[in-house]
Fold:
Amino acid sequence: MVLIYSTPIEKWECAYKECGAKCCTGGREVTAGDIRRIARATGLKPEKFVHLEDEKGLFRLKNGDRCVFLNDDYSCRLHKRGVKPIFCRMYPFKFEGVIYADEIVLKVKVTDNCPGIGRGHKIGEDLEATIEELGNKFVNEIKDFLRLKGEGLSNESIIGRD
Structure:
Protein backbone atom coordinates (compact mmCIF):
# COMPACT_ATOMS: atom_id res chain seq x y z
CA MET A 1 0.00 0.00 0.00
CA VAL A 2 1.21 3.50 -0.79
CA LEU A 3 0.32 6.50 1.35
CA ILE A 4 0.82 9.83 -0.42
CA TYR A 5 0.57 12.66 2.04
CA SER A 6 1.28 16.16 0.86
CA THR A 7 -0.31 19.07 -0.86
CA PRO A 8 -1.01 18.10 -4.47
CA ILE A 9 1.11 19.79 -7.13
CA GLU A 10 -0.36 20.99 -10.39
CA LYS A 11 2.77 21.23 -12.56
CA TRP A 12 6.27 19.82 -12.55
CA GLU A 13 9.31 19.49 -14.80
CA CYS A 14 12.74 18.16 -14.01
CA ALA A 15 15.22 21.00 -13.68
CA TYR A 16 18.25 18.88 -12.75
CA LYS A 17 20.78 21.09 -14.53
CA GLU A 18 19.42 24.24 -12.91
CA CYS A 19 19.49 22.88 -9.37
CA GLY A 20 22.59 20.70 -9.72
CA ALA A 21 20.53 17.52 -9.33
CA LYS A 22 19.53 18.16 -5.70
CA CYS A 23 17.48 14.96 -5.84
CA CYS A 24 20.64 12.92 -6.46
CA THR A 25 22.27 13.54 -3.10
CA GLY A 26 22.18 11.52 0.07
CA GLY A 27 22.18 7.71 0.03
CA ARG A 28 19.12 6.98 -2.11
CA GLU A 29 17.00 4.08 -0.90
CA VAL A 30 17.00 1.03 -3.17
CA THR A 31 15.53 -2.45 -3.08
CA ALA A 32 17.27 -5.74 -3.79
CA GLY A 33 15.42 -5.71 -7.13
CA ASP A 34 16.89 -2.28 -7.95
CA ILE A 35 20.35 -3.61 -7.11
CA ARG A 36 19.94 -6.65 -9.36
CA ARG A 37 18.68 -4.53 -12.27
CA ILE A 38 21.54 -2.03 -11.92
CA ALA A 39 24.19 -4.76 -11.62
CA ARG A 40 22.93 -6.54 -14.76
CA ALA A 41 22.73 -3.31 -16.79
CA THR A 42 26.10 -1.89 -15.73
CA GLY A 43 28.17 -5.01 -15.15
CA LEU A 44 29.16 -3.63 -11.74
CA LYS A 45 29.27 -5.81 -8.66
CA PRO A 46 26.73 -4.58 -6.08
CA GLU A 47 29.41 -3.85 -3.46
CA LYS A 48 30.82 -1.18 -5.83
CA PHE A 49 27.66 0.95 -5.69
CA VAL A 50 25.55 -0.04 -2.69
CA HIS A 51 25.97 -0.70 1.03
CA LEU A 52 24.98 -4.35 1.43
CA GLU A 53 23.63 -3.90 4.95
CA ASP A 54 19.86 -3.67 4.79
CA GLU A 55 17.33 -1.79 6.85
CA LYS A 56 14.36 -4.19 6.68
CA GLY A 57 14.68 -4.72 2.95
CA LEU A 58 16.03 -1.28 2.07
CA PHE A 59 19.60 -0.59 1.02
CA ARG A 60 21.44 2.68 0.38
CA LEU A 61 23.46 3.64 -2.66
CA LYS A 62 27.05 4.59 -1.92
CA ASN A 63 27.95 8.21 -2.41
CA GLY A 64 29.82 11.14 -1.05
CA ASP A 65 27.97 14.35 -1.68
CA ARG A 66 26.16 12.92 -4.70
CA CYS A 67 24.88 9.71 -6.22
CA VAL A 68 27.55 7.36 -7.50
CA PHE A 69 25.73 7.27 -10.89
CA LEU A 70 25.56 11.04 -11.37
CA ASN A 71 27.68 12.38 -14.26
CA ASP A 72 29.56 15.68 -14.13
CA ASP A 73 26.83 17.32 -16.25
CA TYR A 74 24.25 16.15 -13.65
CA SER A 75 22.76 13.53 -15.97
CA CYS A 76 22.16 10.00 -14.70
CA ARG A 77 24.17 7.07 -16.04
CA LEU A 78 21.24 4.74 -15.29
CA HIS A 79 18.53 6.78 -17.03
CA LYS A 80 19.22 5.71 -20.64
CA ARG A 81 19.68 2.10 -19.51
CA GLY A 82 16.19 2.11 -18.03
CA VAL A 83 17.32 0.93 -14.59
CA LYS A 84 16.95 3.99 -12.38
CA PRO A 85 15.96 2.90 -8.87
CA ILE A 86 12.23 2.92 -8.18
CA PHE A 87 12.49 5.95 -5.91
CA CYS A 88 14.37 7.95 -8.53
CA ARG A 89 11.55 7.24 -10.97
CA MET A 90 8.99 8.46 -8.42
CA TYR A 91 10.48 11.93 -8.19
CA PRO A 92 9.23 14.62 -7.33
CA PHE A 93 7.77 12.34 -4.67
CA LYS A 94 10.28 11.33 -2.04
CA PHE A 95 10.64 8.57 0.51
CA GLU A 96 9.26 9.37 3.94
CA GLY A 97 9.30 5.95 5.53
CA VAL A 98 7.89 2.47 5.66
CA ILE A 99 5.37 1.22 8.19
CA TYR A 100 5.95 -2.47 8.91
CA ALA A 101 2.60 -3.75 10.17
CA ASP A 102 0.17 -6.45 9.01
CA GLU A 103 0.51 -4.75 5.63
CA ILE A 104 3.66 -2.90 4.59
CA VAL A 105 2.84 0.75 3.90
CA LEU A 106 5.13 3.04 1.95
CA LYS A 107 4.93 6.72 2.88
CA VAL A 108 5.80 9.31 0.22
CA LYS A 109 5.30 13.02 -0.18
CA VAL A 110 6.16 15.73 -2.66
CA THR A 111 9.63 17.13 -2.07
CA ASP A 112 9.83 20.70 -0.91
CA ASN A 113 13.14 21.70 -2.51
CA CYS A 114 12.68 21.08 -6.24
CA PRO A 115 12.76 24.18 -8.46
CA GLY A 116 10.71 22.33 -11.11
CA ILE A 117 7.57 22.24 -8.96
CA GLY A 118 4.95 24.65 -10.24
CA ARG A 119 6.19 24.78 -13.81
CA GLY A 120 6.29 22.55 -16.84
CA HIS A 121 3.67 19.96 -17.67
CA LYS A 122 0.35 19.75 -15.90
CA ILE A 123 0.23 16.82 -13.54
CA GLY A 124 -2.86 14.73 -13.65
CA GLU A 125 -4.18 11.46 -12.39
CA ASP A 126 -1.68 9.64 -14.64
CA LEU A 127 1.24 10.69 -12.43
CA GLU A 128 -0.56 9.70 -9.25
CA ALA A 129 -1.37 6.30 -10.80
CA THR A 130 2.29 5.90 -11.78
CA ILE A 131 3.44 6.82 -8.26
CA GLU A 132 0.98 4.28 -6.84
CA GLU A 133 2.20 1.60 -9.27
CA LEU A 134 5.89 2.25 -8.57
CA GLY A 135 5.23 2.44 -4.83
CA ASN A 136 3.47 -0.91 -4.89
CA LYS A 137 6.39 -2.41 -6.83
CA PHE A 138 8.72 -1.03 -4.14
CA VAL A 139 6.58 -2.57 -1.37
CA ASN A 140 6.42 -5.92 -3.19
CA GLU A 141 10.19 -5.99 -3.56
CA ILE A 142 10.56 -5.35 0.18
CA LYS A 143 8.07 -8.14 0.93
CA ASP A 144 9.94 -10.52 -1.37
CA PHE A 145 13.25 -9.65 0.28
CA LEU A 146 11.86 -10.15 3.79
CA ARG A 147 10.30 -13.48 2.79
CA LEU A 148 13.63 -14.73 1.39
CA LYS A 149 15.49 -13.40 4.43
CA GLY A 150 13.01 -15.32 6.61
CA GLU A 151 13.97 -18.46 4.69
CA GLY A 152 17.54 -17.96 5.89
CA LEU A 153 19.11 -16.48 2.76
CA SER A 154 21.87 -13.89 3.10
CA ASN A 155 21.65 -10.41 1.57
CA GLU A 156 24.27 -11.40 -0.99
CA SER A 157 22.31 -14.52 -1.97
CA ILE A 158 19.10 -12.56 -2.37
CA ILE A 159 20.73 -9.81 -4.41
CA GLY A 160 22.43 -12.39 -6.62
CA ARG A 161 19.11 -14.06 -7.47
CA ASP A 162 17.57 -13.61 -10.92
Q: What stands out?
A: The first helix runs from residue 16 to 19. The chain has a mean pLDDT of 84.
